[in-house]
Amino acid sequence: MASQNRNSKITRYRRPYSVLNIGTIIFGFIFLYMVISVFLYMTAEHTVSYEVMEGAISGNYRYTALALKEETIVPSSGSGSVVYYAREGAMASSGTTVCSVGGADMASAAQAASAEPTAEDLKNLKDTMSSFLIGFEGSTFQEVYNFKADLESYILQMGKSETDTALYTSGDAYVSPESGFVVYSVDGLEDATEEELSADLFSQTQYHRTNLRLSQQVSAGDPLYKLVTSEEWALYFPLDSSLATELQDRSSIRFRFLKDNNTFSAPFSIIQNESGYYGKISLNTSLARYVSDRYLEIELLMDRKTGLKIPTSAIAEKTFYRIPEEYVIANKDTEREITLLRETFNRDGSASVRYVTATVYGKEEGYYLVSPELFEEGDYVQMLDTNKKFQIQESNMDTIQGVYNINKGYAVFREVTVIDENEEFCIVEPDNVYSLAAHDHIVLDASTVNDDDIVY
After folding, report:
1. Residue 177 burial by CB count (10 A; 0-12/13-18/19+): exposed, middle or buried?
2. Nearest to residue 89, comparing CAs of 79, 98, 80?
3. Residue 131: which of 86, 71, 87 has the closest Cα?
4. How far apart are CA 219 and CA 400, in angstroms?
5. How far apart are CA 283 and CA 298, in angstroms?
6. Which pTM value belongs to this model?
7. Neighbour-count burial of 38, counting CB atoms closer than 10 A to its CB (0-12 exposed, 13-18 middle, 19+ buried)
8. How many CB atoms within 10 Å of residue 186?
9. Deepest of 247, 249, 258, 329, by most Cβ within 10 A of its Cβ?
10. Whole-angstrom Cα distance, residue 424 to residue 312?
11. Residues 163-219: pLDDT tens digits?
């Protein structure tokens, strides 16, 4: 009993509970580090990389070409309503009725043309409408009026031969004086020749094309239509002196019409006059496709040099010191590093000589290119085992083109030699130990990084 009373007076000691034990503190630091890292990653401006691939540039020369043809304008000899029967771009043989003046208007003529269309007529009409819908663009709404006029002319011709046309043609009929493609527009350049080529002809700011079919009434002397009487035609486009030199030995060229992506090879020559150089592509085929066009967008498809293809935005320029190779101690293990014997001067005027390891950023004939951060102007590089010295000065600096390689997670400048380029890409010389290799990763926009920047 006494033992039981003694035990009842014993009070257990409880340790005070503390949140700040060593495990909690370590976990807190790790958690805080993770939060800060995620925040910095989310708010940092990420560098976009580009994988270097082998390739070539093709079709990088695009021009607005001027098309000159043999064109004859046929004027009206009288006044009145005009009705067109031939379709735009159709080949009219000599004696074919193209239009009439002074009789019924288009609606009356269509009513008179009551012959039953054949199944082939209807199929051709559907095909014409489908082709127009597929190629239609809102920026060229003017083509809707041309298409409407083509349909009217087509309906007048359905189910009839050329001799039948005279039966429903009212007024004065105008027949084709010779064979040619029918065009219902004039622009004042019908008589232009290659001797008159100038920059003004390629400026379309003042260019005006008149659609003749938009006028239902004509007066004597007004143009009715024009005939393109020869399938031989030519495209002209301006050249700068460098491209003219590059193309001067070519007798033919391969090019593409951007209008429909058709590709052709054709004879080529260069014309030079007081206003500059002009390329001339001579054609004797496919006029029917482009007979109504005065200006055509083309792309020259030239055989280009191959190498490593990179975007032009990746190119940067950087300045380096040129060190003569006789002052360099080569590294047998890697060509990208060299050793130099650098002589500097202390504040008290005493000289200090020590070895420094330098990264090679490029090699020119007889010189290595090294970073200017290794030296101060006035330092010397001493030739090993001699008293010869090479002084570091501004006149020994050279600016080269390069890109930032990020294979190792930080930006390293690498020299590139551009051998071909266009507005978006350039081809750089492969097989350069100081440059790039296929599948290297570089910074897409060189302006976003500096040397040794960590790349996220």
Report:
1. middle
2. 98
3. 87
4. 69
5. 14
6. 0.56
7. exposed
8. 19
9. 247
10. 6
11. 444 445 557 889 999 999 999 989 999 999 999 999 889 988 888 888 888 788 899
